Amino acid sequence: MDLDVFVTTHRIEWDRLDHLLHRGRNLTGAEADELVALYQRTATHLSLIQSSAPDPQLTARLTQLVARARATVTGTRRASWRDAARFLTAGFPAAVYRSRHWWIPTAVLSTVLAAVIGWWIGTHPEVQAAIAAPDDLRSMTRPGGEYEAYYSSHPAASFAAQVWTNNAQAAAMCLVLGAFLCVPVIWILFMNVLNLGVGIGLMSSAGRLDTFLGLVLPHGLLELTAVFVAAGTGLRLGWTVIDPGPRTRRAALAQQGRAALGMAIGLALVLFVSGLIEGFVTPSGLPTWGRITIGVGAELAFLAYVYIIGGRAARAGDTGDVEAGEQSAELPSAA
């Protein structure tokens, strides 16, 4: 492509589009139609320049021009309660449902790994000795020890807020860092699994595994499910970098990234519920079976929410992405 000839040929169209954009809403019907046509042609021109004869200054000018034109053509709108309701009743559960092929294997493998680590620690005294001194181990695992006192170490409200903040940060890190080829997500997930496995191993070696599970299961079922969903979504995002499929890598990452952002908001709400359970139910005086029943009920409610409501929304075509009108325009590819 001869860039000088191309610019000379189309400069008048770009200047005309810029003029119409400066007119704002004071356009006739014919001028509005002309603005739409010029916007589409300029977007094509930008794509041609980017692929055939990239020029930073010209590309910057046309990118700005196309962005302004798109904002004028499509308009803007404010988020409303309707958007929030749609997100909670369709977008978020659909996104979780559609990513189930990532987070369910993540959950299964993580649970198996935690059980194996727990068995290894619980059956090998030398491993326990490497973790802490015998007196420290007894202090952690005895009745009323550190494992039990942890859940009543602070007032319930502040403890629930602290737990929610920590878990939400971990989930957000899994979602955000997934783009770095999955490695940070695997590390964050492994550290969570390791902590769980150590608790299982030490408490089982002290003959108090039932007590430990009675403390962990009420909130842990929902909490770990949210972490597994976040990790699975982060891994999916990382795999998109490696294999974007038929779309361009940028377009694929944009779609998955928007869905991951929505997932972060939804999972923060899920973790808020698990934080309330951990702050108010886990340390309560309820019998163990009562606390576990509440935890199982919360977990089943979330799974029903994902598989019934989310499955229906996903089959209807919802991907968890923003609505088509709110997505960034993709430039046409040059032949």
Poorly predicted parts: 324-335
Describe the largest sheet. none
Radius of gyration, in Å, reads 27 Å
C-alpha termini separation:
13 Å
- The proportion of strand residues reads under 5%
Structural class: mainly alpha
Quick one: how many beta strands? Answer: 0
Helix content: over 70%
Mean pLDDT: 84
Tell me the series of helices and strands, N- to C-terminal: HHHHHHHHHHHHH
Count of helix runs: 13
Morphology: elongated
Q: Could you name the key traits of this structure?
A:
335 residues; mainly alpha; 13 helices
List the helices and strands and how they pair.
Blueprint (H helix, E strand, L loop, with lengths): L2 H21 L5 H24 L3 H19 L6 H18 L1 H23 L2 H7 L2 H8 L4 H4 L6 H22 L5 H23 L3 H34 L6 H33 L6 H28 L20
Helix pairs in contact: 1-2, 1-3, 2-3, 4-12, 4-13, 5-10, 5-11, 9-10, 9-11, 9-12, 10-11, 11-12, 11-13, 12-13
Give a short synopsis of this structure:
This protein is mainly alpha-helical and 335 residues long. It has helices spanning 3-23, 29-52, 56-74, 81-98, 100-122, 125-131, 134-141, 146-149, 156-177, 183-205, 209-242, 249-281, 288-315.
3D architecture notes:
The protein is mainly α. Helices cover 79% and strands 0% of the residues. It contains 13 helices and no strands. Helix 1 runs antiparallel to helix 2 (29-52). The protein is elongated, with a radius of gyration of 27 Å.
